[in-house]
Amino acid sequence: MKKIIHITVTFIFSSLLVLYPATLLSKSGEPIVIHYDAPFWLALQCFFAQWVTHKVYKKLSLKLTTTALAIRHFLKIFIVSSLASIASITVLTLMIEVAFGRKTIDNHHIILTLITTFLLHTLNSSAILAIKIFKNINQQQLSLEKAQNNLLEINVKQLQQQLDPHFLFNNLNVLSALIISKPYEAEKFLDAFSNIYRYIIDNQHKNTIVIDKEINFSYDYMELLRKRFANAFYLTLSFDSQDTLHYKTLPCSLQLALENVIKHNQGDTENPLNIEVRISNTWLIIKNPIRPKTFATPSSGLGLNNLKLRAKAILRKPIQIEQNEHQFTLKIPVIQG
After folding, report:
1. For residue 148, how far is the Cα from the chain centroid?
2. Collapsing DSSP states into helix, strand and coil, what is residue 199?
3. What's this model's pTM, rounded to 2 decimal places?
4. First vs last Cα of the chain: how many Å apart?
5. What is the pLDDT of residues 182-217, one digit of tens each?
6. Are residues 285 and 329 in contact, defined by beta-carbon separation less than 8 angstroms?
7. Who's near 214: CB < 8 A, 6+ residues apart?
């Protein structure tokens, strides 16, 4: 199909190239004089110029050690193909003219033939090289995108592996404190912690997870925190529609968001800190009032940075953070399942 289109376009181009000067040379009221073999002969010259350009491109490109072709490389192809095409077509044209009875072939006629052949080759060679350049750029772009996707995939796996020790470290601290102060609660905490840790192991290597599962896991996680902090924090949930619970987001993203809230804010048993979670069509929104801890541990930024990079790599959309003196809001992208 492409070859048929190519041949058709070349013949149309040749016909127009013959018709245009014939129209300019014809006088008003007189018929346009066209040699009907002219478009055919011109088309043959076009095909030859295209073929020479393609062969020179193929031969010179084989010598390159890189797929990134510079402009000077294409300029070299144009010059070499021009010399080969112009010399061949000019000699062949003059031989045919002599064979068909042209008696005078002077310098003026040879120069005119060379100029005409050069212009014809330039038009055809430029079209071929433009297509080659476009394909080359497109191929480089695809290679770059593939390399970037491979790099993102590696980065995502590295980020997902960070969830496991991060979660383990935080909760072992909780367990350690309970063993000292509340041994009986520590045993219950350990059972619950085992179940939650299994969730982490089963899902941390997945790219996305249904929000409903993430919500259930987060409620279990908050139960552990309530035992440690004596109900100083609690969670409220709202959603735009029941369907949004079946949307997907990043595994363990809500747990990281809750950890971030508790790490940076002071809870109080008599005045618990309310963490609001709302699910919309496009966001998983976590809001909390800002209550800075008196003695806060310096933040490494690991949790939010993890979310930021994974959201960009997997969901193709960054997280959003909004903060004022009274409230902190984190928005994590969601997608339809």
Report:
1. 8
2. helix
3. 0.54
4. 40
5. 787 788 778 777 877 788 778 767 788 899 988 888
6. yes
7. 249, 251, 252, 253, 254, 255, 284
